Amino acid sequence: MFSGSIVALITPFTPDGEVDFISLRKLVEHHVAAGTDGIVAVGTTGESATLTVEEHVKVVAKTVEFAEGRLPIIAGTGANATHEAITFSRLLNNVGIAGCLSVTPYYNKPTQEGMFQHYKAIAEETDIPQILYNVPGRTGVDLQPETVARLAEIPNIVALKDATGDLSRVQIHRELCGEDFILLSGDDSTGLDFIKQGGKGVISVTNNIAAADMAKMMKLALEGKFEEAEIINQRLMTLHKNLFVESSPIPVKWAAHRMGLIDNGSLRLPLTELSEQAKPIVAQAMTEACIY
């Protein structure tokens, strides 16, 4: 259902801070042409935290519209309040999304039982496939494998995006959750090794500016052609790392604008544009990756 190279899509803005739907359409076309296997709209990389509910729903709906069924669209629907996450799921229930990506509740630091009840409540309100998203570095909580296993028993919780970078968890999750439960990496630097351990794909920031390379690398990896995939991965490795030289999506938006993929690299406060000190770091990573 969900596999391969899935882009954690940036949300383009106009210079005055409005959503730039012209650039959004261009981004979707770029990923269709590049062979991207799926799009996550309005996830963390899509600056979900700074969009209004109305904007959030419209960006997802427009992404589905622009894709025209050519690749699946996954909606970011996470929130640290369960009722808010349920609201997003309900509002997006009929727009044509293939799934929901729901991050662990951030800042309020729920227990494992709290996270189980949070995801259970969301799943019970929709038939749309749900992808759990564990990213402790941003949220302050870590969804443990035992809790993932409990949640995997709920029929429409079908996958996990694991952004811990802890490759030992792949086998643990596989043993606890079974072969049908989909494991996706959320960490570009370890994404290929994640596939080698039994993962099915990567939800990627790098994919925003290296879409064709990421699609080819994931295709090779899923075919077991790891040596060929590793050649691509090594060329992209500095990029994987330096797109986080400042808080994401600051660097990747700058890079996307530099490539002409979006009309400008505007962000919404509290995020600010890439610093002058960081620009040559990202530019050098793009050069090493053969991306200009």
From TrEMBL:
<feature type="site" description="L-lysine inhibitor binding">
    <location>
        <position position="106"/>
    </location>
</feature>
<comment type="similarity">
    <text>Belongs to the DapA family.</text>
</comment>
<feature type="active site" description="Schiff-base intermediate with substrate">
    <location>
        <position position="161"/>
    </location>
</feature>
<dbReference type="GO" id="GO:0008840">
    <property type="term" value="F:4-hydroxy-tetrahydrodipicolinate synthase activity"/>
</dbReference>
<keyword id="KW-0457">Lysine biosynthesis</keyword>
<keyword id="KW-0963">Cytoplasm</keyword>
<protein>
    <recommendedName>
        <fullName>4-hydroxy-tetrahydrodipicolinate synthase</fullName>
        <ecNumber>4.3.3.7</ecNumber>
    </recommendedName>
</protein>
<dbReference type="GO" id="GO:0005829">
    <property type="term" value="C:cytosol"/>
</dbReference>
<feature type="site" description="Part of a proton relay during catalysis">
    <location>
        <position position="107"/>
    </location>
</feature>
<feature type="active site" description="Proton donor/acceptor">
    <location>
        <position position="133"/>
    </location>
</feature>
<comment type="function">
    <text>Catalyzes the condensation of (S)-aspartate-beta-semialdehyde [(S)-ASA] and pyruvate to 4-hydroxy-tetrahydrodipicolinate (HTPA).</text>
</comment>
<dbReference type="InterPro" id="IPR002220">
    <property type="entry name" value="DapA-like"/>
</dbReference>
<keyword id="KW-0704">Schiff base</keyword>
<feature type="site" description="L-lysine inhibitor binding">
    <location>
        <position position="80"/>
    </location>
</feature>
<feature type="site" description="L-lysine inhibitor binding; via carbonyl oxygen">
    <location>
        <position position="49"/>
    </location>
</feature>
<keyword id="KW-0456">Lyase</keyword>
<dbReference type="InterPro" id="IPR020625">
    <property type="entry name" value="Schiff_base-form_aldolases_AS"/>
</dbReference>
<dbReference type="InterPro" id="IPR020624">
    <property type="entry name" value="Schiff_base-form_aldolases_CS"/>
</dbReference>
<dbReference type="InterPro" id="IPR005263">
    <property type="entry name" value="DapA"/>
</dbReference>
<feature type="site" description="Part of a proton relay during catalysis">
    <location>
        <position position="44"/>
    </location>
</feature>
<feature type="binding site">
    <location>
        <position position="45"/>
    </location>
    <ligand>
        <name>pyruvate</name>
    </ligand>
</feature>
<feature type="site" description="L-lysine inhibitor binding">
    <location>
        <position position="84"/>
    </location>
</feature>
<keyword id="KW-0028">Amino-acid biosynthesis</keyword>
<dbReference type="GO" id="GO:0009089">
    <property type="term" value="P:lysine biosynthetic process via diaminopimelate"/>
</dbReference>
<dbReference type="GO" id="GO:0019877">
    <property type="term" value="P:diaminopimelate biosynthetic process"/>
</dbReference>
<dbReference type="InterPro" id="IPR013785">
    <property type="entry name" value="Aldolase_TIM"/>
</dbReference>
<comment type="pathway">
    <text>Amino-acid biosynthesis; L-lysine biosynthesis via DAP pathway; (S)-tetrahydrodipicolinate from L-aspartate: step 3/4.</text>
</comment>
<dbReference type="Pfam" id="PF00701">
    <property type="entry name" value="DHDPS"/>
</dbReference>
<keyword id="KW-0220">Diaminopimelate biosynthesis</keyword>
<comment type="subunit">
    <text>Homotetramer; dimer of dimers.</text>
</comment>
<feature type="binding site">
    <location>
        <position position="203"/>
    </location>
    <ligand>
        <name>pyruvate</name>
    </ligand>
</feature>
